[in-house]
């Protein structure tokens, strides 16, 4: 076919002919011409876009004094706290003073927790979080310069086995201190939750999600450890600082319901400000020294049908400082034992009685046949 008169090295051009011009005064043949025109006008309209700067919550107030709850006075008498609790329900955040946790224990846990972030990047990657493993180091992706690092601690045995390999010389000591502090926080949380629920005659509800499937999450309470970066380049540049803060906060808001909890205890001595974020915006205030800052969790908001507002808190460290460590303890009360499981459980007294009866029958059987 090479000698065929129809073969050529120039590709054939099968371009479509240009469209025929339409007369300007010609009317459309569609019966409902106005309806069609309105439909096309609406379809071609550019939608209103929500830009990133509008996603970032709007600041409602520069400095706001949060309500304070005296835990020591609360143990003596719960009267006179109704008004304070009503304010806490609206703000979703308060400061707990005279909580009974020694500053020495808090400082010891913070100092020990700083060692977690001194591990090499190779060891951190071994204990990085994933969809199947909800504890360990939180990995960041992208070119943004982060203002902190995150590590999630819990009572999971798998975390203990992994950390004892990568941090063999110090993890046992760190875990014991965390366990001691977590127990004290859980004891305080139980008192506060009962007080908050009694204010509105509420009861806790342990239901599944709306789709009937329980979310995969860490059982029980856990702690987020944050290492706040002291990079003077970021802190001295307001634009870079705000960009990093927006990125960090938006990520935090997206992950706000990652672990369902009732209360969140923030340990952040040395912070210059504390930000409280909600859907309506955010406020900032200067926390008191030695006070625990507590934010309301999603569980308490659900149990109270919205009477208590779920918010997210974040400490802010400004200035040319060394690396600071803050902690956020998320308290989740254990669900009640199901009634079926209670009915199938044999008490210790019944077990002893059962052993005595078996012993008596055995001795009687031996006596008869001997």
Helices and strands, with pairings:
Layout: H1 33-43, H2 52-55, E1 59-61, E2 68-70, H3 71-76, H4 82-91, E3 93-97, H5 103-114, H6 121-126, E4 136-137, E5 148-153, H7 157-166, H8 171-199, E6 222-228, H9 232-236, H10 238-254, E7 263-267, E8 273-278, E9 281-285, E10 292-296, H11 298-303, E11 312-316, E12 324-331, H12 339-344, H13 348-369
Parallel strand pairs: 1-9, 2-3
Antiparallel strand pairs: 3-10, 4-5, 5-6, 6-12, 7-10, 7-12, 8-9, 8-11
How would you explain this protein's 3D organization?
With 370 residues, the chain is an alpha+beta fold. The chain has 13 helices and twelve strands. The strands form two sheets. It has an eight-stranded mixed β-sheet. It has a four-stranded mixed β-sheet with strand order 1-9-8-11, covered by helices on one side. The longest helix is centred in the middle third of the chain and has 29 residues, at 171-199.
Short description:
By secondary structure, the chain is α+β, with helices and mostly antiparallel strands. The protein has helices at residues 33-43, 52-55, 71-76, 82-91, 103-114, 121-126, 157-166, 171-199, 232-236, 238-254, 298-303, 339-344, 348-369, and strands at 59-61, 68-70, 93-97, 136-137, 148-153, 222-228, 263-267, 273-278, 281-285, 292-296, 312-316, 324-331. It has a single domain (59-204, 215-331), classed as Jelly Rolls.
């Amino acid at each position: 076919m090479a000698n065929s008169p129809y073969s050529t090295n120039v590709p054939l051009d099968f371009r479509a002919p240009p469209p025929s011009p339409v007369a300007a005064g010609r009317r459309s043949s569609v019966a409902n011409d106005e309806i069609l025109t309105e439909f096309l006008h609406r379809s071609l309209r550019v939608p209103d876009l929500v830009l990133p700067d509008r996603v970032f919550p709007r600041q409602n107030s520069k400095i706001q004094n949060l309500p304070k709850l005296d835990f020591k006075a609360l143990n003596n008498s719960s009267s006179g706290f109704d008004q304070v609790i009503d304010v806490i329900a609206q703000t979703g955040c308060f400061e707990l003073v005279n909580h009974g946790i020694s500053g020495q224990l808090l400082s010891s846990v913070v100092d020990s927790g700083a060692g977690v972030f001194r591990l090499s990047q190779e060891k951190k990657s071994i204990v990085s979080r994933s969809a199947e493993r909800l504890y360990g180091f939180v990995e960041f992706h992208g070119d943004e310069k982060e203002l902190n690092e995150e590590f999630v601690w819990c009572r999971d045995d798998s975390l203990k086995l992994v950390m004892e390999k990568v941090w063999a010389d110090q993890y046992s000591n760190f875990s014991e201190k965390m366990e001691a502090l977590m127990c004290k926080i859980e004891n305080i949380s139980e008192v506060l939750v009962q007080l908050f629920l009694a204010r509105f005659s509420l009861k806790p509800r342990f239901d599944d999600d709306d789709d009937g499937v329980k979310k995969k999450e860490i059982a029980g309470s856990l702690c987020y450890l944050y290492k706040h970066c002291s990079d003077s380049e970021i802190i001295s540049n307001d634009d870079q600082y705000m960009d990093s803060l927006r990125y960090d906060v938006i990520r935090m808001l997206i992950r706000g319901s990652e672990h369902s909890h009732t209360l969140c205890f923030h340990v952040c001595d040395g912070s210059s400000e504390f930000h409280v974020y909600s859907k309506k915006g955010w406020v900032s205030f200067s926390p008191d020294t030695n006070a625990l800052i507590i934010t309301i969790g999603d569980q308490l908001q659900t149990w109270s049908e919205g009477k208590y507002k779920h918010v997210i808190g974040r400490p802010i460290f400004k200035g040319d400082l060394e690396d600071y460590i803050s902690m956020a303890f998320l308290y989740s009360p254990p669900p009640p034992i199901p009634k079926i499981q209670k009915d199938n459980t044999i008490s210790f007294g019944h077990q002893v009685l059962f052993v005595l009866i078996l012993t008596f029958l055995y001795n009687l059987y031996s006596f008869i046949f001997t």
